[in-house]
Amino acid sequence: MNNNPLIINYFTDILCVWAWIAERRLEELNIHFGSKIKISHRYIDLFGDTDSRIQDQWAEKGLHKGFGAHVMQAAAPYETAPVNADVWSKVCPTTSATAHMIIKAVELTYGYQSAVKFAKVLRESFFINAIDISNLQSLFTLLEKQKFDVNQIDPVLNNGKALAALMNDYQKANDYGIKGSPSFVLNDGRQNLFGNIGYKVLKANIEELLAKSTNEASWC
């Protein structure tokens, strides 16, 4: 019997509302499957340059305010993913890359689980509290509130290791052909579930792969 967990490479951008909505589904997957799965959080360059992205896609639809209205509308049906009215209409992060790099710095300094928890704090800080998480000072303040020592994190920022780890994620996204956020990559890249995927669909795909793994192991 194969006791190794099923690896799910999970690609998101920290500023993506659909990834914010998917947070509850991740929690349910972890509760339901427990140690049978391992979700590997990775980040993509979707909102690397938000001004250019919004100019290109929302120039005729209200720019930042129009995009903010769209985000509010997208999240409205999901009570577990509240969005502050100031998001994008008044608080407009310039990039997601700063936050992604800090998450990687936390991972390198304090470990993977700490980084996953901090990433959730950042999503909550932006979508609920309308904090500009592209601003380094805001990020350092959030680190301190979570009892992380900025002085311990500084070395991996200064020597480039945190940035290198982020670039590795961006390259992995290219290797897998990731088109957007969130994306669930299963079965060593053979399955890519992208976008606002419902919990039942995710659960069914994972159960199928777990069953397949068990059946194949029985032939060994």
Could you explain how this protein is built, in words?
The chain has 220 residues and is of the alpha+beta class. It contains 9 helices and 4 strands, in the order E-H-E-H-H-H-H-H-H-H-E-E-H. The model has no long low-confidence stretch (mean pLDDT 94). It is 56% helix and 10% strand. The termini are close together.
Q: How would you describe this structure in keywords?
A:
220 residues; alpha+beta; 4-stranded mixed sheet; 4 strands; globular
Provide the fold topology:
Blueprint: E1 6-12, H1 17-33, E2 37-43, H2 50-58, H3 63-75, H4 97-110, H5 112-127, H6 136-145, H7 150-158, H8 161-176, E3 183-186, E4 191-194, H9 199-217
Parallel strand pairs: 1-2
Antiparallel strand pairs: 1-3, 3-4
For the sheet with most strands, the description reads: 4 strands, mixed
Structural class: alpha+beta
Give the SSE string.
EHEHHHHHHHEEH
Q: Which runs of at least 5 residues are low in confidence (pLDDT < 50)? A: none
Question: Roughly what percent helix?
Answer: 55-70%
Q: How many separate helices?
A: 9
